[in-house]
């Protein structure tokens, strides 16, 4: 504590100027802390209450060491930070992992990736579970509505076709699969299921009127394709400004708009 106070100082008081508050810090003069001999002669308190020079209890030498020591879960850690620009975090971390694998770490050392990458991984995991739960709930609702366990599968088989469009759209716009894109996929799943319900419900009504299965499908598709296309076109046109935006924060909103459109 004494050596730290001699170099970094100790706050003796504070004063205000307007709305700002400043510390009054007391420490050794530059001339008294410029060499090893100055450090060796710094007096520190002994357990007996006497002042003794530092060189009597410690060896002083130049060396390299951390500016500060931080711990997490009682383990010492060193944090390396960097800002990203022009690339997604996922690909940057993958490049870092390739470089780190070539580094032989001492025994007991390990590398952990945190920050925005860790947040993204946790969000991905949470959204994937949410997507699975949403699909299960949609299935149960449709099974109750159509009073059939097989009919909902006919509708839900249209959802993977939408995923093909999502991948194509992200590649075309140079975007990557991210948390906003996953949110867009969840929205797209709801839209695709809704369109399927409109189609299948009308086909079932035609079947109840006595129409043959094949004729009912052709007639239902011909009648319902127009409202489905109108819904799709209005959704695409509504999402285009967000998908093509280059304003601040567009990198967060655009993937979701591309996935939905």
UniProtKB/TrEMBL annotation:
Stored Pfam families: ACR_tran
Keyword set, alphabetical order: Membrane, Transmembrane, Transmembrane helix
InterPro entries: AcrB_DN_DC_subdom, Acrflvin-R
Protein name: Acriflavin resistance protein
PANTHER family: PTHR32063, SWARMING MOTILITY PROTEIN SWRC
Organism: marine sediment metagenome
Record Gene3D superfamilies: Multidrug efflux transporter AcrB pore domain, Multidrug efflux transporter AcrB TolC docking domain, DN and DC subdomains, Multidrug efflux transporter AcrB transmembrane domain
Membrane-traversing stretches: 123-142, 149-173, 179-203
GO CC term, one of those recorded: plasma membrane
Gene Ontology MF, one: xenobiotic transmembrane transporter activity
């Amino acid at each position: 504590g004494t050596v730290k106070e001699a170099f970094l100082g100790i706050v003796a008081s504070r004063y205000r100027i307007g709305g700002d508050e400043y510390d009054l810090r007391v420490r050794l003069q530059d001339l008294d802390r410029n060499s090893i001999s100055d450090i060796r002669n710094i007096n520190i308190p002994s357990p007996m209450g006497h002042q003794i020079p530092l060189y009597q209890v410690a060896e002083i030498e130049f060396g390299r060491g951390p500016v500060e020591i931080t711990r997490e879960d009682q383990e010492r850690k060193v944090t390396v930070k960097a800002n990203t620009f022009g690339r997604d975090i996922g690909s940057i971390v993958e490049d870092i992992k390739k470089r780190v694998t070539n580094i032989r770490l001492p025994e007991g050392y390990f590398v952990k990736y945190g920050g925005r990458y860790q947040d993204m991984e946790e969000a991905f995991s949470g959204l994937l579970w949410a997507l699975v739960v949403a699909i299960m709930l949609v299935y149960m609702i449709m099974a109750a509505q159509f009073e059939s366990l097989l009919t909902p599968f006919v509708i839900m088989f249209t959802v993977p076709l939408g995923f093909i469009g999502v991948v194509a759209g992200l590649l075309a716009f140079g975007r990557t699969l991210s948390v906003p894109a996953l949110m867009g996929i969840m929205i797209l799943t709801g839209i695709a299921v809704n369109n399927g319900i409109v189609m299948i419900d009308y086909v079932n009504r035609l079947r109840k009127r006595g129409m043959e299965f094949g004729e009912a499908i052709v007639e239902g598709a011909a009648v319902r394709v127009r409202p489905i296309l109108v819904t799709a076109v209005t959704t695409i046109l509504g999402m285009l400004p967000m998908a093509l935006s280059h304003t601040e924060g567009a990198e967060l909103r655009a993937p979701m708009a591309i996935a939905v459109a």
